[in-house]
Amino acid sequence: MGEWLYLIIGIAVLVVATTAGLLASGRRKTPPAPRDTTGVISSTTTQAPPGTSAEAPVETPLEAPAAPLVERPEGTASRLVRLRQRLAGSQGALGRGLLALLSRDRLDEDTWESIEDTLLTADIGVAPTQELVDRLRSRLRTEGSQADARAVLREELLTLVDPSMDRRLQVSGADGQPGVVLVVGVNGAGKTTTVGKIGRILVAEGRTVVMGAADTFRAAAVEQLVTWGERVGVDVVRGPEGTDPASVAFEAVKEGSARGVDTVLVDTAGRLQNKAGLMDELGKVKRVIEKQAPVTEVLLVLDATTGQNGLIQARVFSEVVDVTGIVLTKLDGSAKGGIVVAVQRELGVPVKLVGLGEGADDLAPFDAEAFVDALLG
Questions:
Q1: Domain 76-161 in CATH 1.20.120.140
Q2: For residues 319-346, average pLDDT
Q3: How far apart are alpha carbons 212 and 226 in whole angstroms?
Q4: Which terminus, N or C, of the chain has the lesser number of Cβ atoms within 10 Å?
Q5: What is the pLDDT of residue 219?
Q6: For the packed helices 276-289 and 309-321, what is the interaxial angle rounded to 10 degrees?
Q7: Which of 20-34, 173-187, 328-342 is predicted with the least confidence, judged by mean pLDDT?
Q8: Highest CATH level, class, for 179-367
Q9: Is 78:84 a contact under the CB 8 Å cutoff?
Protein backbone atom coordinates (compact mmCIF):
# COMPACT_ATOMS: atom_id res chain seq x y z
CA MET A 1 0.00 0.00 0.00
CA GLY A 2 2.84 2.39 0.85
CA GLU A 3 4.60 1.63 -2.44
CA TRP A 4 1.47 2.58 -4.45
CA LEU A 5 1.20 5.86 -2.54
CA TYR A 6 4.78 6.82 -3.32
CA LEU A 7 4.24 5.98 -7.03
CA ILE A 8 1.13 8.18 -7.33
CA ILE A 9 2.90 11.11 -5.62
CA GLY A 10 5.85 10.79 -8.04
CA ILE A 11 3.64 10.84 -11.12
CA ALA A 12 1.82 13.94 -9.86
CA VAL A 13 5.12 15.79 -9.26
CA LEU A 14 6.29 14.91 -12.83
CA VAL A 15 3.07 16.23 -14.45
CA VAL A 16 3.26 19.52 -12.52
CA ALA A 17 6.91 20.06 -13.51
CA THR A 18 6.23 19.38 -17.21
CA THR A 19 3.27 21.78 -17.32
CA ALA A 20 5.28 24.56 -15.68
CA GLY A 21 8.08 24.12 -18.24
CA LEU A 22 5.71 24.40 -21.21
CA LEU A 23 4.12 27.60 -19.88
CA ALA A 24 7.52 29.25 -19.37
CA SER A 25 8.60 28.32 -22.93
CA GLY A 26 5.43 29.90 -24.43
CA ARG A 27 6.05 33.15 -22.57
CA ARG A 28 9.58 33.44 -24.03
CA LYS A 29 8.47 33.32 -27.73
CA THR A 30 8.95 36.57 -29.74
CA PRO A 31 5.95 37.82 -31.76
CA PRO A 32 6.49 38.23 -35.58
CA ALA A 33 7.42 41.66 -36.95
CA PRO A 34 4.32 43.60 -37.99
CA ARG A 35 3.86 44.77 -41.64
CA ASP A 36 2.44 48.22 -42.06
CA THR A 37 -0.06 49.19 -44.79
CA THR A 38 2.46 51.05 -46.95
CA GLY A 39 4.52 48.01 -47.80
CA VAL A 40 7.45 48.97 -45.51
CA ILE A 41 8.66 46.31 -43.09
CA SER A 42 9.10 47.53 -39.46
CA SER A 43 10.97 45.38 -36.94
CA THR A 44 11.50 45.95 -33.19
CA THR A 45 13.99 43.11 -32.90
CA THR A 46 16.41 44.09 -35.68
CA GLN A 47 19.69 45.48 -34.39
CA ALA A 48 19.73 49.28 -34.73
CA PRO A 49 22.53 50.92 -36.80
CA PRO A 50 25.24 52.77 -34.81
CA GLY A 51 24.11 56.18 -33.55
CA THR A 52 20.41 55.32 -33.60
CA SER A 53 17.97 54.29 -30.90
CA ALA A 54 17.42 50.58 -30.52
CA GLU A 55 13.69 51.20 -30.63
CA ALA A 56 13.78 53.04 -34.02
CA PRO A 57 12.41 50.89 -36.87
CA VAL A 58 14.60 50.13 -39.89
CA GLU A 59 12.66 50.87 -43.12
CA THR A 60 13.21 49.63 -46.66
CA PRO A 61 12.08 52.45 -49.03
CA LEU A 62 9.74 51.68 -51.91
CA GLU A 63 11.23 51.88 -55.44
CA ALA A 64 10.54 55.13 -57.36
CA PRO A 65 8.24 54.71 -60.40
CA ALA A 66 10.10 54.33 -63.69
CA ALA A 67 10.09 57.29 -66.08
CA PRO A 68 7.80 56.81 -69.13
CA LEU A 69 9.63 55.37 -72.11
CA VAL A 70 9.91 57.45 -75.26
CA GLU A 71 8.88 55.47 -78.32
CA ARG A 72 11.14 54.93 -81.30
CA PRO A 73 9.08 55.60 -84.45
CA GLU A 74 9.49 53.57 -87.62
CA GLY A 75 11.80 54.76 -90.37
CA THR A 76 10.83 55.53 -93.95
CA ALA A 77 11.90 52.16 -95.40
CA SER A 78 9.45 50.10 -93.34
CA ARG A 79 6.70 52.64 -94.00
CA LEU A 80 7.14 52.22 -97.76
CA VAL A 81 6.85 48.45 -97.41
CA ARG A 82 3.54 48.94 -95.62
CA LEU A 83 2.47 51.45 -98.28
CA ARG A 84 2.76 48.83 -101.00
CA GLN A 85 1.01 46.15 -98.93
CA ARG A 86 -1.93 48.29 -97.84
CA LEU A 87 -2.51 49.89 -101.24
CA ALA A 88 -2.39 46.52 -102.96
CA GLY A 89 -5.25 45.44 -100.71
CA SER A 90 -7.44 48.51 -101.19
CA GLN A 91 -6.64 49.63 -104.74
CA GLY A 92 -5.98 46.34 -106.54
CA ALA A 93 -9.56 45.98 -107.78
CA LEU A 94 -9.17 49.03 -110.03
CA GLY A 95 -6.10 47.65 -111.77
CA ARG A 96 -7.55 44.17 -112.11
CA GLY A 97 -10.70 45.58 -113.65
CA LEU A 98 -8.75 47.65 -116.19
CA LEU A 99 -6.45 44.76 -117.11
CA ALA A 100 -9.39 42.43 -117.60
CA LEU A 101 -10.94 44.89 -120.06
CA LEU A 102 -7.69 45.66 -121.92
CA SER A 103 -6.89 41.96 -122.28
CA ARG A 104 -9.98 41.20 -124.35
CA ASP A 105 -9.40 39.86 -127.84
CA ARG A 106 -11.33 42.75 -129.36
CA LEU A 107 -11.36 46.26 -127.94
CA ASP A 108 -14.61 47.68 -129.28
CA GLU A 109 -16.38 50.87 -128.31
CA ASP A 110 -18.35 49.16 -125.57
CA THR A 111 -15.08 48.00 -124.00
CA TRP A 112 -13.58 51.49 -124.08
CA GLU A 113 -16.75 52.89 -122.51
CA SER A 114 -16.41 50.32 -119.72
CA ILE A 115 -12.79 51.39 -119.21
CA GLU A 116 -13.89 55.02 -118.94
CA ASP A 117 -16.60 54.11 -116.44
CA THR A 118 -14.10 52.18 -114.31
CA LEU A 119 -11.74 55.14 -114.19
CA LEU A 120 -14.47 57.64 -113.41
CA THR A 121 -15.81 55.44 -110.62
CA ALA A 122 -12.32 55.52 -109.08
CA ASP A 123 -12.55 59.35 -108.90
CA ILE A 124 -9.72 59.99 -111.35
CA GLY A 125 -11.74 62.81 -112.90
CA VAL A 126 -13.18 63.46 -116.35
CA ALA A 127 -10.21 65.18 -118.02
CA PRO A 128 -7.52 62.76 -116.74
CA THR A 129 -9.75 59.80 -117.66
CA GLN A 130 -10.15 61.04 -121.23
CA GLU A 131 -6.41 61.62 -121.57
CA LEU A 132 -5.58 58.14 -120.29
CA VAL A 133 -8.12 56.43 -122.54
CA ASP A 134 -6.89 58.34 -125.60
CA ARG A 135 -3.26 57.38 -124.94
CA LEU A 136 -4.14 53.75 -124.30
CA ARG A 137 -6.18 53.52 -127.52
CA SER A 138 -3.38 55.09 -129.53
CA ARG A 139 -0.63 52.87 -128.16
CA LEU A 140 -2.53 49.62 -128.33
CA ARG A 141 -3.65 50.37 -131.87
CA THR A 142 -0.09 51.23 -132.95
CA GLU A 143 1.69 48.37 -131.18
CA GLY A 144 -1.00 45.83 -132.06
CA SER A 145 -0.75 42.27 -130.81
CA GLN A 146 2.84 42.84 -129.67
CA ALA A 147 1.67 45.18 -126.93
CA ASP A 148 1.81 44.02 -123.33
CA ALA A 149 -1.43 45.46 -121.94
CA ARG A 150 -0.15 45.44 -118.37
CA ALA A 151 3.12 47.19 -119.22
CA VAL A 152 1.33 49.81 -121.34
CA LEU A 153 -1.23 50.47 -118.62
CA ARG A 154 1.50 50.79 -115.97
CA GLU A 155 3.46 53.34 -118.02
CA GLU A 156 0.40 55.45 -118.76
CA LEU A 157 -0.88 55.37 -115.18
CA LEU A 158 2.55 56.39 -113.97
CA THR A 159 2.54 59.33 -116.37
CA LEU A 160 -0.87 60.31 -115.05
CA VAL A 161 0.29 60.23 -111.40
CA ASP A 162 3.37 62.23 -112.45
CA PRO A 163 6.51 60.88 -110.74
CA SER A 164 8.38 64.09 -111.64
CA MET A 165 6.59 66.10 -108.92
CA ASP A 166 8.75 67.10 -105.96
CA ARG A 167 7.21 65.24 -103.02
CA ARG A 168 9.82 66.15 -100.40
CA LEU A 169 8.51 67.80 -97.24
CA GLN A 170 9.94 71.30 -96.85
CA VAL A 171 10.72 71.05 -93.14
CA SER A 172 13.93 73.13 -92.97
CA GLY A 173 14.20 76.89 -92.60
CA ALA A 174 16.89 79.29 -93.75
CA ASP A 175 19.37 81.45 -91.81
CA GLY A 176 19.08 79.38 -88.65
CA GLN A 177 15.30 79.56 -88.49
CA PRO A 178 13.17 76.45 -88.10
CA GLY A 179 11.09 75.08 -90.91
CA VAL A 180 7.42 75.83 -90.25
CA VAL A 181 4.77 73.35 -91.39
CA LEU A 182 1.17 74.57 -91.24
CA VAL A 183 -1.40 71.75 -91.33
CA VAL A 184 -4.93 72.66 -92.46
CA GLY A 185 -8.14 70.86 -93.35
CA VAL A 186 -11.82 70.42 -92.58
CA ASN A 187 -13.24 68.84 -89.45
CA GLY A 188 -13.00 65.06 -89.37
CA ALA A 189 -10.27 64.62 -91.97
CA GLY A 190 -7.76 63.41 -89.37
CA LYS A 191 -5.75 66.61 -89.16
CA THR A 192 -4.56 66.51 -85.53
CA THR A 193 -3.67 62.84 -85.83
CA THR A 194 -1.73 63.65 -89.00
CA VAL A 195 0.27 66.34 -87.18
CA GLY A 196 1.21 63.80 -84.51
CA LYS A 197 2.21 61.23 -87.12
CA ILE A 198 4.31 63.74 -89.07
CA GLY A 199 6.07 64.52 -85.81
CA ARG A 200 6.94 60.83 -85.51
CA ILE A 201 8.36 60.77 -89.05
CA LEU A 202 10.59 63.77 -88.29
CA VAL A 203 11.77 62.28 -84.98
CA ALA A 204 12.61 59.02 -86.78
CA GLU A 205 14.80 61.08 -89.12
CA GLY A 206 16.66 62.56 -86.16
CA ARG A 207 15.11 66.02 -86.35
CA THR A 208 14.16 68.18 -83.36
CA VAL A 209 10.54 69.28 -83.30
CA VAL A 210 8.11 71.57 -81.47
CA MET A 211 4.36 71.30 -82.06
CA GLY A 212 1.82 74.11 -81.71
CA ALA A 213 -1.74 73.23 -80.66
CA ALA A 214 -3.54 76.07 -82.44
CA ASP A 215 -6.86 74.20 -82.58
CA THR A 216 -7.84 76.06 -79.41
CA PHE A 217 -11.59 75.60 -79.75
CA ARG A 218 -11.41 71.86 -79.09
CA ALA A 219 -9.81 70.89 -75.78
CA ALA A 220 -9.78 67.28 -76.95
CA ALA A 221 -7.62 68.22 -79.95
CA VAL A 222 -5.08 69.93 -77.70
CA GLU A 223 -4.90 66.96 -75.31
CA GLN A 224 -4.63 64.59 -78.25
CA LEU A 225 -1.66 66.49 -79.65
CA VAL A 226 0.03 66.60 -76.23
CA THR A 227 -0.31 62.82 -76.01
CA TRP A 228 1.26 62.40 -79.47
CA GLY A 229 4.13 64.64 -78.40
CA GLU A 230 4.77 62.83 -75.12
CA ARG A 231 5.09 59.50 -76.89
CA VAL A 232 8.14 60.66 -78.86
CA GLY A 233 9.52 63.32 -76.52
CA VAL A 234 8.25 66.36 -78.46
CA ASP A 235 7.07 69.46 -76.58
CA VAL A 236 3.72 71.04 -77.44
CA VAL A 237 2.99 74.77 -77.10
CA ARG A 238 -0.60 75.31 -76.03
CA GLY A 239 -2.88 78.00 -74.62
CA PRO A 240 -6.13 78.15 -72.63
CA GLU A 241 -9.24 76.90 -74.39
CA GLY A 242 -10.62 79.58 -76.69
CA THR A 243 -7.30 81.43 -77.04
CA ASP A 244 -6.68 83.20 -80.34
CA PRO A 245 -5.24 80.43 -82.58
CA ALA A 246 -2.87 82.90 -84.24
CA SER A 247 -1.28 83.77 -80.89
CA VAL A 248 -0.64 80.09 -80.06
CA ALA A 249 0.89 79.53 -83.51
CA PHE A 250 3.04 82.64 -83.03
CA GLU A 251 4.29 81.44 -79.63
CA ALA A 252 5.04 77.96 -81.00
CA VAL A 253 7.26 79.37 -83.75
CA LYS A 254 8.84 81.80 -81.27
CA GLU A 255 9.62 78.92 -78.91
CA GLY A 256 11.01 76.79 -81.76
CA SER A 257 13.25 79.64 -82.91
CA ALA A 258 14.53 80.32 -79.38
CA ARG A 259 15.39 76.64 -78.85
CA GLY A 260 16.92 76.21 -82.28
CA VAL A 261 14.76 73.25 -83.30
CA ASP A 262 14.65 71.98 -86.86
CA THR A 263 10.89 72.08 -87.42
CA VAL A 264 7.73 73.58 -85.93
CA LEU A 265 4.47 71.77 -86.72
CA VAL A 266 1.31 73.85 -86.29
CA ASP A 267 -2.09 72.21 -85.98
CA THR A 268 -5.06 74.43 -86.85
CA ALA A 269 -8.79 74.25 -86.19
CA GLY A 270 -10.80 72.28 -88.72
CA ARG A 271 -12.31 74.86 -91.02
CA LEU A 272 -15.53 74.49 -92.96
CA GLN A 273 -14.69 75.51 -96.50
CA ASN A 274 -17.97 77.40 -96.90
CA LYS A 275 -17.47 79.64 -93.84
CA ALA A 276 -15.71 82.76 -95.08
CA GLY A 277 -14.98 84.14 -91.60
CA LEU A 278 -13.23 81.00 -90.42
CA MET A 279 -11.22 80.77 -93.62
CA ASP A 280 -10.12 84.38 -93.19
CA GLU A 281 -8.98 83.51 -89.68
CA LEU A 282 -6.85 80.73 -91.12
CA GLY A 283 -5.20 83.24 -93.41
CA LYS A 284 -4.52 85.37 -90.33
CA VAL A 285 -2.77 82.46 -88.60
CA LYS A 286 -0.38 82.16 -91.52
CA ARG A 287 0.31 85.91 -91.63
CA VAL A 288 1.01 86.09 -87.89
CA ILE A 289 3.35 83.11 -88.03
CA GLU A 290 5.37 84.77 -90.76
CA LYS A 291 6.18 87.66 -88.43
CA GLN A 292 8.51 85.14 -86.77
CA ALA A 293 9.61 82.90 -89.64
CA PRO A 294 8.46 81.97 -93.15
CA VAL A 295 6.00 79.10 -93.51
CA THR A 296 7.94 76.48 -95.48
CA GLU A 297 5.09 74.01 -96.05
CA VAL A 298 1.29 74.16 -96.01
CA LEU A 299 -0.18 70.67 -95.95
CA LEU A 300 -3.86 70.16 -96.70
CA VAL A 301 -5.29 67.03 -95.10
CA LEU A 302 -8.04 65.38 -97.14
CA ASP A 303 -10.08 62.27 -96.41
CA ALA A 304 -9.65 59.99 -99.43
CA THR A 305 -13.10 58.51 -98.91
CA THR A 306 -14.82 61.87 -99.60
CA GLY A 307 -14.07 61.61 -103.33
CA GLN A 308 -14.94 64.59 -105.47
CA ASN A 309 -16.03 66.64 -102.44
CA GLY A 310 -12.37 66.71 -101.48
CA LEU A 311 -11.62 68.67 -104.64
CA ILE A 312 -13.99 71.45 -103.57
CA GLN A 313 -12.25 71.63 -100.20
CA ALA A 314 -8.84 71.66 -101.87
CA ARG A 315 -9.76 74.52 -104.17
CA VAL A 316 -10.99 76.80 -101.36
CA PHE A 317 -8.09 76.11 -99.01
CA SER A 318 -5.55 76.72 -101.74
CA GLU A 319 -7.03 80.18 -102.35
CA VAL A 320 -6.58 81.13 -98.69
CA VAL A 321 -3.21 79.68 -97.68
CA ASP A 322 -1.35 78.61 -100.84
CA VAL A 323 -1.31 74.85 -100.24
CA THR A 324 2.05 73.25 -101.12
CA GLY A 325 1.26 69.60 -100.52
CA ILE A 326 -1.57 67.12 -99.93
CA VAL A 327 -1.95 64.49 -97.22
CA LEU A 328 -4.53 61.86 -98.15
CA THR A 329 -5.82 59.99 -95.10
CA LYS A 330 -7.80 56.73 -95.08
CA LEU A 331 -6.47 55.77 -98.50
CA ASP A 332 -6.38 52.14 -97.36
CA GLY A 333 -10.12 52.33 -96.68
CA SER A 334 -11.10 53.66 -100.10
CA ALA A 335 -11.22 51.92 -103.45
CA LYS A 336 -11.23 55.34 -105.11
CA GLY A 337 -7.49 55.90 -105.33
CA GLY A 338 -7.97 58.01 -108.44
CA ILE A 339 -8.42 60.98 -106.07
CA VAL A 340 -4.60 61.15 -106.05
CA VAL A 341 -4.63 62.12 -109.73
CA ALA A 342 -7.66 64.38 -109.47
CA VAL A 343 -6.45 66.49 -106.55
CA GLN A 344 -2.99 66.93 -108.03
CA ARG A 345 -4.57 68.16 -111.26
CA GLU A 346 -6.90 70.48 -109.34
CA LEU A 347 -4.18 72.21 -107.32
CA GLY A 348 -1.06 71.59 -109.33
CA VAL A 349 0.66 70.42 -106.12
CA PRO A 350 1.74 66.88 -105.22
CA VAL A 351 0.34 64.35 -102.83
CA LYS A 352 3.21 64.07 -100.33
CA LEU A 353 1.89 61.75 -97.62
CA VAL A 354 -0.78 59.07 -97.43
CA GLY A 355 -2.50 57.58 -94.41
CA LEU A 356 -2.84 53.82 -94.47
CA GLY A 357 -4.48 52.91 -91.17
CA GLU A 358 -5.02 53.74 -87.51
CA GLY A 359 -1.54 52.80 -86.27
CA ALA A 360 0.87 55.44 -84.96
CA ASP A 361 3.25 54.86 -87.88
CA ASP A 362 0.62 54.30 -90.58
CA LEU A 363 1.56 57.47 -92.46
CA ALA A 364 3.99 57.12 -95.35
CA PRO A 365 5.63 59.32 -97.97
CA PHE A 366 3.71 58.96 -101.23
CA ASP A 367 5.61 57.05 -103.89
CA ALA A 368 4.19 57.20 -107.43
CA GLU A 369 5.63 53.87 -108.58
CA ALA A 370 4.53 52.05 -105.45
CA PHE A 371 1.04 53.48 -105.91
CA VAL A 372 0.75 52.38 -109.55
CA ASP A 373 2.19 48.93 -108.80
CA ALA A 374 -0.39 48.57 -106.03
CA LEU A 375 -3.16 49.50 -108.48
CA LEU A 376 -2.02 46.71 -110.76
CA GLY A 377 -1.61 44.20 -107.95
A1: yes
A2: 84
A3: 9
A4: N
A5: 82
A6: 50
A7: 20-34
A8: alpha beta
A9: no
